[in-house]
Amino acid sequence: MKALAETVIDDTLQRIRALVGDKGYITAADAMEPHLVEWRGLWRGQARAVVKPADTAEVAEVVKLCAEAGIPIVPQGGNTSLVGGSVPYEDFDGIILSLARMNRVRAIDRMNYTMTVEAGCVLADLQRIAEENDRFFPLSLAAEGSCMIGGNLSTNAGGVNVLRYGNTRELVLGLEVALPDGTVWEGLRGLRKDNTGYDLKHLFVGAEGTLGIVTAAVLKLFPKPTRRETAMVAISGPDAAIELLARARAASADGVTSFELMPRICFDFVLAHIADTVDPLPQRYDWHVLLELSSTSPEDDGLAEKLQNLLEKAAEDGLVLDAAIAQNQAQANAMWKLRETVSEAQKPEGASIKHDVSVPVSRVPEFLRRADEAVAKAVPGIRVVGFGHVGDGNIHYNLSVPKGGDNQAFLARWEEINEIVHDIVHDMGGSISAEHGLGRLKREEITRYKSQTEMELMRKIKGLIDPKGIMNPGKVL
Amino acid sequence: MKALAETVIDDTLQRIRALVGDKGYITAADAMEPHLVEWRGLWRGQARAVVKPADTAEVAEVVKLCAEAGIPIVPQGGNTSLVGGSVPYEDFDGIILSLARMNRVRAIDRMNYTMTVEAGCVLADLQRIAEENDRFFPLSLAAEGSCMIGGNLSTNAGGVNVLRYGNTRELVLGLEVALPDGTVWEGLRGLRKDNTGYDLKHLFVGAEGTLGIVTAAVLKLFPKPTRRETAMVAISGPDAAIELLARARAASADGVTSFELMPRICFDFVLAHIADTVDPLPQRYDWHVLLELSSTSPEDDGLAEKLQNLLEKAAEDGLVLDAAIAQNQAQANAMWKLRETVSEAQKPEGASIKHDVSVPVSRVPEFLRRADEAVAKAVPGIRVVGFGHVGDGNIHYNLSVPKGGDNQAFLARWEEINEIVHDIVHDMGGSISAEHGLGRLKREEITRYKSQTEMELMRKIKGLIDPKGIMNPGKVL
């Protein structure tokens, strides 16, 4: 039986090779390497081949052949997953299906504020193409130079503009998906309103490639922001951040595009380890918010005055202790550099245990109090680097080893610390994976927090749409 | 067998009555009447009882009992469906489950900009409660005084604020749903970011009660708009409307909350038949847009000037022929009255055949040209009243009988005319039900336009989640 199965598999792979051509069929070790290894080196998987179809028809045919032969598939975009969702397991015996060659923008409809793009388009390219068409595509995140939109869709990526524009899920109007049996669901609609039955696209967005392969999408575009006001604001604490956020939303016609909380330790790490960084404030403060307001108005609509008034009033009320308002783009960039290099700056400080959690925005201060106390009790001297998209209730709650502590001993407690933090998150109605997904990393852990009913529904849907279990096996569920 | 089945049903109904009490169990003809009849009188169904549970536990128990006995259920909110989704069929032999008694607001979290509400809350009450808490719940539609949020969620209701705030789907963060087997999915999360598996809530939103009963939801709130600028703008035609919309979005920091297209015939009908209406413009024009900009800024942020500049520039460029800007709320209300009474004003003009369609916003002018030509060819003298939410690509394409024509002869061609209009819509990548759903009215017709693949996926999902087919039978699918 084994021999027969191998014959079938070999025969299928031959047919796939003939279909996609040598250019789309990779087996050389060095060429396969970047597809097999998680980008931080945390996991290394294997595969029989990396297949790169040129268009949707080829994707569908490859999936159909694999389905018939029972060959599992790991769909892959830019391979920048933070939870191991985009690389195969160590004992994987199927193929990686890379969307990298499908990188065309099929259409731009300026007056419909949409663009129709293929899954392999790199996010930064899409941002640029929107800009060239006098439009704005708001999805923006650290990996944008290499991540692909198919992966962004499959993981419902978040990023720095969610507060104003929503997650990737909110940015998509239509999808084209190769289903696990090789048929194609052609749902590439560019409609703002369509109430004709179940909304299938939301099943595939965020499914991490376990229900099919997103091959193309219709994305929403927006008017291009013409003005931005950026400020680094010293605040009295996390409670003040939540109050300031509500005031900023009201004051700016809901034009708050970013609202990032940063405790002192972020500044200390970045200023110590990252070249060309400087504290924009004249003295040390314990808590900061990086605040950005935007407007699309072609005329000056008083955004700078709004920010000024907001901060002055908040200072009178004791929420704001000090603030630096960027006077030009270079100053704004310098402020953003403080925020964007936090993870990098954490590395020289030793091992860290990370969490990507969310709670209701109103409960962020309570979460920080409870979690800080709990982890300090577990590991005296632990250094809490809890920062991030507080406007979405999303905290990157990263914990650095105590100063001079033993890295290995600290990392050995990864799961224990995860459980402490995630139990608090769960108790507060939060999420243990706010924007990174479940992938391989959290598929076991999630069963601790989701109800039986919800896990059962998810498993039934997986069984329904992918009955042979060939799509990204061992991820999510 | 029949007798035995009837015994089981009787026994189950007895148990349901004991569970919900006399207050929650209605069989008197007069009390059942409003639940059995479609509000315009288009359909009249029957049911064994109208059951009104007091809380989620009761809903779940009723569903469980019905599932065991095979008794079908029509879930019902305010019974304002426009497609017969909320009333039972003529030969229905199950129960209506009304959510009307479940009308508590369970929680308001001002700083999280959310409220947790039960399915039976009337939409207008929720708008008011948000307002009292210095927040804004943007869902707004004609039936808001009696429709219930559970129905809004189950139909993914649209309305007049979709352009800025999205459909109901975009306004919900979490759901509580009684599944067809009587278990409850507790998904009442108030999170802006949560990437932990398949997004189940989007399956139930817009499913028109065919996959389960929405019992509660966490809704998004927004900063309260403090300023509104309303204008009735005479434009050169539909093409000018699309260009003006793009300019308005850019000029107002994406603060266009309404953008409603109205041809001359709307004005003629309304001015002739509706008391206390007046044309705000000094002369007759062929095409109009009712334009509303909003801002939440507590200070004057130049919204009026933005509108003025926008219109002046558009007039220079030949897009705008004339405009009246409301100088106070009374004038704004008078303009809105012209828009909101169009359907009512159509009635005295004789029979009408209606369509709730959408196309990409950029293609609205093309749709109007093609459809106008096609229906005039089919029925010479037909009067096209094509108006509505052009900012969402959503046209209420309503057709009045030719002047002095035979109403019955006209209505006899309903399906033929539907097909002419919907074929054009479909050819343009549009939707034959933009905001009203499929319900009973369009469940057959949709199979003409959706792909086999999509219909099959929808049927499989229905079969998976409601294997006994007891939830709102004969609707959607």
Automatic annotation (TrEMBL), chains A, B:
Gene Ontology biological-process entries: respiratory electron transport chain
Q: Would I find Flavoprotein among this entry's keywords?
A: yes
Which terms does the record give in the GO molecular function aspect? Answer: FAD binding; oxidoreductase activity
Q: Which domain of life is it from?
A: Bacteria
InterPro entries of this UniProt entry? FAD-bd_oxidored_4_C (IPR004113), FAD-bd_PCMH (IPR016166), FAD-bd_PCMH-like_sf (IPR036318), FAD-bd_PCMH_sub1 (IPR016167), FAD-bd_PCMH_sub2 (IPR016169), FAD-linked_Oxase-like_C (IPR016164), FAD-oxidored/transferase_4 (IPR051264), Oxid_FAD_bind_N (IPR006094)
Cite the FAD-binding PCMH-type domain residue spans from the record.
43-224
Alphabetic keyword roster: FAD, Flavoprotein, Oxidoreductase
Q: Which Pfam families match?
A: FAD-oxidase_C, FAD_binding_4
Named cofactor requirement(s): FAD
Protein name, per record? Putative FAD-binding dehydrogenase
- What is the species listed in this Swiss-Prot or TrEMBL entry? Oceanibaculum indicum P24
